[in-house]
Amino acid sequence: MNTPSPSLLSRRRFLATTGGALAFPLIFPGCATEPRRRVRPSNRIHLGIVGWGLQGPSNIRTFLHEEDCRVVAACDIDRTHLQAALDTINGHYESKDCKGYHDYREMLASDDLDAVVLAVPDHWHELVATEAARRGLDIYGEKPLAQTIAEQQSIVRAVQKNKVIWQTGSWQRSLPSFRRAAEIVRSGLLGEITRVEVGLPAGHNDLAKTKEFMEPTAPPAELDYERWIGPSRMEPYIKARGHMNWRWNYNTGGGQLMDWIGHHCDIAHWGLDFDRSGPSEIEAQAEFPAAGAIWNTATKYRIELKYPRRIAMTIAGGHPDINNGTKWIGKDGWVYVTRAGFDASNPEWKKSPALANALVKTKLQQSSTHHRNFLDCIKSRQPTVTPVETAHHSAIPGHLGLIAMKTGRKIRWDVASETIIGDPTASKLLSRDYRGPWKMS
Q1: Counting Cβ atoms within 10 Å, is residue 393 exposed (0-12), middle (13-18) or buried (19+)?
Q2: Within a domain: 274
Q3: pLDDT tens digit string along 332-385?
Q4: Any idea what the Cα angle at residue 120 is, between residues 39 and 153, rounded to 5°?
């Protein structure tokens, strides 16, 4: 039964003071929720951004061109980044209205926000996302959902409990070629699926071009490094593993595997209808840098997984037999899709998207653009094309693969309870210790 929504202020005060953890399992399909934002005189959705590094600018530049939203706040713990954010946003609006923040908690407590875009390093995802959810803010969050499975579970709980709209930056679901491939698989045109190949990048992509800065130094004056390292283990500041290159250090990121698992594995799950499912057995092998290296994430890896319906999946980076992208192989044919194109065993599907679309029996959620889908769902209170539950399950194979790499053992996974079976040592890697005073929600 629908009931009138209280004002945004009273609702958010209630959520902020009554938030609490729910016991697992509670992963269930996204459901419609009641409106939670104030009807503003401008009828615009007010957005804030936390993190102005790699993804923050590209996300916000897209939102700036949407007439029904307004970016009103920006937060970054690097003064240079924060100023760049304010210059970009205020420059676009030809005003000085966008407010800058150093502490994300202060920004999220602002009564002027309806939604927030999160583009912080992986080791900060849980803290910022759960705080935003408790504040009743709708969230556009980057992938992977979090640095560990336990942190992902915490985010899912917070989003579900507070009934906020969540969109994950797994934007391939908003491209026609990826949706067409998944619909072909879902519609049974390949027959019984026997195997899926997920190809991801390997090595280290030096995003900041800083290989010459490999020695510990004092942090730059504009960066609050104590806050930047946050809940992770304190390490000496090294420029080569700071901004953007935090991905190649397991203290703050997850390497190419976790940087990309939310893209091509997400599409693999979409085609298999496994957005609420996962593997039961996981084995992995990997090559790592030498002990003590500045970057310690795997440079080459291969993960073998067993899924329901006797489906085998390989997730690999650095192995030439597994092409970058997603390939489903069935008894009656195959389909392969990547950002560079689309291919299939039936050449007609490749030559004529209209023909392929006419043959599919299962139509998946259509999104014109990922950012537009988020704004539309804020208004409709319907689940986005990549809700939080989907992001959670899309990343689980990567997390479990990484645990199998680190332990050198086969991992058996209970999908329903989300626990590792019979391996207490491996189970400890489902979570991580937080450095005080930070605590996982």
Answers
A1: buried
A2: no
A3: 999 999 999 999 999 988 888 787 788 899 999 999 999 999 999 999 999 999
A4: 80
Q: Which CATH number do you get for residue 86?
A: 3.40.50.720
Domain span at residue 73 reads 8-16+23-30+41-172
Sheet containing 411-414: give its strands across: 341-344, 333-338, 325-330, 193-200, 311-317, 300-307, 281-287, 411-414, 419-420
Residue 170: C-alpha distances to residues 76, 209, 370, 399, 416 (Å): 23, 25, 8, 17, 24
Is 357 inside any structural domain?
no
CA nearest to 69, candidates 55, 54, 59: 59
Total of domains in the chain: 1
Helices 55-63 & 370-380, crossing angle to 10 degrees?
A: 60
Read off the tokens for 133. Answer: 């959810």
Among 51, 54, 394, which residue's Cα sits nearest to residue 247?
Answer: 54
Q: Residues 287, 288, 289, CA angle at the centre, nearest 5°?
A: 135
The answer as to whether 398 is a domain residue is no
Interatomic CA distance for residues 245 and 16, integer angstroms? 34
pLDDT digits (tens, 9 = 90+) for 90-114: 999 999 999 999 999 999 999 999 9
